[in-house]
Amino acid sequence: MDERTAHVIRRAEEFITHKDDAWAIPRAAGEFIHTLLLATRAKRGLEIGTSYGYSGLWIASALKQNGGSLITIDKEQRKSDVAATHFADAGLSDCVRVETGIALEIIPGLEGGFDVVLLDADKENCISYVRALEGKLNSRCIVLTDNALTHAGPLADFLSWIRSHKGFESALLPLGNGMEMSVKM
Predict the structure, then answer these.
(1) How far apart are CA 161 and CA 119, in angstroms?
(2) pLDDT confidence of residue 123
(3) 125 touches 154 (CB < 8 A)
(4) How far, in Å, CA of 148 to CA of 14, rounded?
(5) Which residues contact 155 (CB under 8 A, 6 or more apart)?
(6) Which of the ends of the chain has fewer CB neighbours closer than 10 A, N or C?
């Protein structure tokens, strides 16, 4: 990762520590996702739940190094605006598209071919998100779902569904808040 992006990540960490509505992945999860995407050479990413852009910085940095791009969706304009500033400051604006609105309304208009998806928004819609995306996911697409340990109750139906889905191989990673890693087969 280049120093410019690393600097903005540190600045974003400081920013979110002072916010009571910043639902960000822990640093260890960001480092893992960044490294995973570099290793798999993922190019097209989708993030549902931008918040202030912290996880998107990790994802976009790796995708850019792989010659790819990220689409990130949040329902709140004020968060999208801050995230866009973080992406610009990190030199990632050319490979990140920030969308604001309801993810289930935006997904149908997205072009397919995703290599990685991060689900880090409202937990009750995770099944709907994956169903809406299934035809847009490349073979071996990695679907990462944050908060599999900290929000096990709200994610119980989704985790049961994805783990028994014949089209995915799925495992819980006890990293950060707990991350379910599901691979489209």
Answers:
(1) 15
(2) 95
(3) no
(4) 25
(5) 123, 126, 145, 147, 148, 180
(6) C
- Rounded to the nearest 10 degrees, what angle do helices 54-65 and 77-89 cross at? 40
d(C-alpha 49, C-alpha 116), whole Å: 14
* Structural Rg of the chain based on CA atoms: 15
Q: pLDDT tens for residues 120-130?
A: 999 999 999 99
Instruction: State the Cα–Cα distance between residues 33 and 27, nearest whole angstrom.
Output: 10
Domains assigned to the chain: 3-184 (3.40.50.150)
Amino acid present at 110: L
Helix (H) or strand (E) holding 177: none
In this structure, what token pair is assigned to residue 123? 């937990």
| 3-state class percentages of the chain: helix first, strand second, coil last, to nearest 5 | 50, 25, 25
pLDDT, mean over the chain: 96
Nearest CA to 84 out of 48, 53, 42 is that of 53
Q: Taking residues 146-173, report their average pLDDT.
A: 96
